[in-house]
Amino acid sequence: MALIVQKYGGSSVADAERIKRVAERIVTARKAGHEVVVVVSAMGDTTDELLDLASQVSPVPPGRELDMLLTSGERISMALLAIAIHNLGYEARSYTGSQAGVITTSVHGKARIIDVTPGRLRNALDEGAIAIVAGFQGVAQDTKDITTLGRGGSDTTAVALAAALHADVCEIYTDVDGVFTADPRIVPNARHIKNVTYEEMLELAACGAKVLMLRCVEYARRFSLPIHVRSSYTNKEGTIVTGAMEDLPLEQALITGVAHDRSEAKITIVGVPDEPGIAAQIFGTVANAEVNIDMIVQNVSTEGTGATDISFTLPKDDGPNAMAALNKIREDIKFKTLLYDDHIGKVSLIGAGMRSHPGVAAKFFAALGAAGLNIEMISTSEIRVSVICRDTDLDAAVRAVHDAFDLGGDEEAVVYAGTGR
Amino acid sequence: MALIVQKYGGSSVADAERIKRVAERIVTARKAGHEVVVVVSAMGDTTDELLDLASQVSPVPPGRELDMLLTSGERISMALLAIAIHNLGYEARSYTGSQAGVITTSVHGKARIIDVTPGRLRNALDEGAIAIVAGFQGVAQDTKDITTLGRGGSDTTAVALAAALHADVCEIYTDVDGVFTADPRIVPNARHIKNVTYEEMLELAACGAKVLMLRCVEYARRFSLPIHVRSSYTNKEGTIVTGAMEDLPLEQALITGVAHDRSEAKITIVGVPDEPGIAAQIFGTVANAEVNIDMIVQNVSTEGTGATDISFTLPKDDGPNAMAALNKIREDIKFKTLLYDDHIGKVSLIGAGMRSHPGVAAKFFAALGAAGLNIEMISTSEIRVSVICRDTDLDAAVRAVHDAFDLGGDEEAVVYAGTGR
């Protein structure tokens, strides 16, 4: 008998029929003798509909109230799921994030989990019940207000509960069969990956692979909790994210896969005085605006001008904030202009094996060059190479790199529609 | 400066436009220097939509989960209302029943308020904020599960919070201008009533006047809390429900009004052995099935048979429960048959003045007789006369009685569509 935490995204519970199917899957696990905790997102488009309602009453809804509003979405899906399970003859009890003991910071819309006190869930399991928990939400430690965890919040809820309950595995149900060597919508013969390390998964997530969010993988790594990413539409084994690289088979592939990201924009600060402390001032300003930056490139100072250009990439959503913050320090820093470009794409090659294999980056750049694709920025880590290109070149770049490293399989990957939150 | 509790029903917050209008009304009270606590129901048809979703996943949803599901309705409306108030430049904070300190029994779907601990609301008011509270819901004292209060729950929430916060008045906003001498949809010249006592209002509510629910009036009477029932569509003064009769002007009208009720059914138990203890056994059984009965009539024993017939009225919703419970004791009691009739109507005449004026009942029966309407059952209290008739005769009966006691005014009453919960 194991303790399993399952997480279902919004598309898996989009309507009554799908909720009933998910209920059957949950009951199957319970029948097999396992203790089951289920984390669920809001049904289908509920969150967007609620956001639309909010925008109808105010252009700038306050965070506390927006969180109160949005958390009703999971309340609906979790109650319906519990009702559907009852209808199959099994006891299920739904819990809000607050009831489940998900304690967070008080930053509305972007709260972080501080602690998990799953006493009520443990009791429910001890009494033979299946516990259903609202994903994406918690209660602020200091204000006792309801908070939401922001993007990837439901996955993080699942992993955090699994860690706190010492679960054997956290199953993340999604609309694909797990992690692939590239997005099957772009590369039809992308290969399914059975095992991947936390480290590789972190790089994949950071580089745009949407199947798991970065913070949830970080959380799982911290607690050495295995994640099983799998499809809620089939019974196929998905991808197991686990352990340190040292635990993995020696025949570990050189390259894990190719990730891509269309969600970033690039800001270029033109004519920055080339003086000590300026970069710190710029990125301090950006950080204070709560903007996460990704790549940074600084050109060498143009001979004689004493000025340089600094470019960095960031999530498109944060673009307006960052531009506003930078414009405020223009006088102070004395830069010339700000350029905003949201027509970029990022393609990344990830593989733990590349640590010990020089030449990977060169082969990667050569593949792009041979395909006639221009590279605008480059960034690397020990186990990753990323480049920025035009967004219109992105699909071609992914295919070129995937082919160059011979990552394809023999079968066509199956693609389902929609994703959860 | 007063402390005002305002309650808005589902039709008052049915869409974004109405929510904005309600927000303006709330802000007007706040601007006038008052402390304002607002209790709100779910938007328009939300509750019915949620019930429909539940029925799609199970024919018999468990109470705990149904309560969890339904309480999401108020969560949405209260957050949107708080957002709309923020947009007018005022601070508003929304609270679930649980957060607002509404402590209840654990009977799901029909919980009763045990205690109110409005510490967080008091703090919000002290900090200058408007507090928005979800009506209709609370948290069970023993299980800590979320409960709903059943019909009239939002009104009761408002009165309970007003009592706990020592509010000056509880304003119940609805779709009519208050209490009328009869339903204006049936009697076009029904007169608006400015003041009514708790006692009269209790009788009116018990007899089908939908403007206020019985339990909310009971609660207000216990704490001597004035209720102001008024329309959310106009600024007209509504009806004030207040004080003991002794406090009211001496010229208090003989008759307050005519109420009617279409929600009851009649059960007749035919051939009950005329023995001591049988009635107690029958109504004990009905009470154990959690059915509230209204009128009871027992005919005299038919000569020689040693058997009698007992009829009683009850809410139609409870009909199946009561019939099932009675059928179970048939062998035991040895009655002959059970008859169920849900085509009845009840018309009632209410007035504190009738206590000291004999002849009211006779005039009432005469009015019905003159209109050719048959009386099936009669029940009276000190300040009320009620009869059961065919449901098809009900409108005519209301008009006949209203005319006979000359209750009409000169103007046509205004009627709006829809009611809240």
UniProtKB/TrEMBL annotation, chains A, B:
<keyword id="KW-0418">Kinase</keyword>
<dbReference type="Pfam" id="PF22468">
    <property type="entry name" value="ACT_9"/>
</dbReference>
<dbReference type="InterPro" id="IPR005260">
    <property type="entry name" value="Asp_kin_monofn"/>
</dbReference>
<comment type="similarity">
    <text>Belongs to the aspartokinase family.</text>
</comment>
<dbReference type="GO" id="GO:0005829">
    <property type="term" value="C:cytosol"/>
</dbReference>
<feature type="domain" description="ACT">
    <location>
        <begin position="349"/>
        <end position="421"/>
    </location>
</feature>
<feature type="domain" description="ACT">
    <location>
        <begin position="267"/>
        <end position="343"/>
    </location>
</feature>
<dbReference type="InterPro" id="IPR002912">
    <property type="entry name" value="ACT_dom"/>
</dbReference>
<dbReference type="GO" id="GO:0009089">
    <property type="term" value="P:lysine biosynthetic process via diaminopimelate"/>
</dbReference>
<feature type="binding site">
    <location>
        <begin position="174"/>
        <end position="175"/>
    </location>
    <ligand>
        <name>ATP</name>
    </ligand>
</feature>
<dbReference type="GO" id="GO:0004072">
    <property type="term" value="F:aspartate kinase activity"/>
</dbReference>
<dbReference type="InterPro" id="IPR045865">
    <property type="entry name" value="ACT-like_dom_sf"/>
</dbReference>
<dbReference type="InterPro" id="IPR001048">
    <property type="entry name" value="Asp/Glu/Uridylate_kinase"/>
</dbReference>
<feature type="binding site">
    <location>
        <position position="74"/>
    </location>
    <ligand>
        <name>substrate</name>
    </ligand>
</feature>
<comment type="function">
    <text>Catalyzes the phosphorylation of the beta-carboxyl group of aspartic acid with ATP to yield 4-phospho-L-aspartate, which is involved in the branched biosynthetic pathway leading to the biosynthesis of amino acids lysine, threonine, isoleucine and methionine.</text>
</comment>
<dbReference type="Pfam" id="PF00696">
    <property type="entry name" value="AA_kinase"/>
</dbReference>
<feature type="binding site">
    <location>
        <begin position="7"/>
        <end position="10"/>
    </location>
    <ligand>
        <name>ATP</name>
    </ligand>
</feature>
<dbReference type="GO" id="GO:0009088">
    <property type="term" value="P:threonine biosynthetic process"/>
</dbReference>
<keyword id="KW-0220">Diaminopimelate biosynthesis</keyword>
<keyword id="KW-0547">Nucleotide-binding</keyword>
<dbReference type="InterPro" id="IPR054352">
    <property type="entry name" value="ACT_Aspartokinase"/>
</dbReference>
<keyword id="KW-0808">Transferase</keyword>
<keyword id="KW-0028">Amino-acid biosynthesis</keyword>
<feature type="binding site">
    <location>
        <begin position="210"/>
        <end position="211"/>
    </location>
    <ligand>
        <name>ATP</name>
    </ligand>
</feature>
<dbReference type="GO" id="GO:0005524">
    <property type="term" value="F:ATP binding"/>
</dbReference>
<keyword id="KW-0067">ATP-binding</keyword>
<dbReference type="InterPro" id="IPR041740">
    <property type="entry name" value="AKii-LysC-BS"/>
</dbReference>
<feature type="binding site">
    <location>
        <position position="47"/>
    </location>
    <ligand>
        <name>substrate</name>
    </ligand>
</feature>
<dbReference type="GO" id="GO:0019877">
    <property type="term" value="P:diaminopimelate biosynthetic process"/>
</dbReference>
<dbReference type="GO" id="GO:0009090">
    <property type="term" value="P:homoserine biosynthetic process"/>
</dbReference>
<dbReference type="InterPro" id="IPR001341">
    <property type="entry name" value="Asp_kinase"/>
</dbReference>
<dbReference type="InterPro" id="IPR036393">
    <property type="entry name" value="AceGlu_kinase-like_sf"/>
</dbReference>
<protein>
    <recommendedName>
        <fullName>Aspartokinase</fullName>
        <ecNumber>2.7.2.4</ecNumber>
    </recommendedName>
</protein>
<comment type="pathway">
    <text>Amino-acid biosynthesis; L-methionine biosynthesis via de novo pathway; L-homoserine from L-aspartate: step 1/3.</text>
</comment>
<comment type="pathway">
    <text>Amino-acid biosynthesis; L-lysine biosynthesis via DAP pathway; (S)-tetrahydrodipicolinate from L-aspartate: step 1/4.</text>
</comment>
<feature type="binding site">
    <location>
        <position position="185"/>
    </location>
    <ligand>
        <name>ATP</name>
    </ligand>
</feature>
<dbReference type="InterPro" id="IPR018042">
    <property type="entry name" value="Aspartate_kinase_CS"/>
</dbReference>
<keyword id="KW-0457">Lysine biosynthesis</keyword>
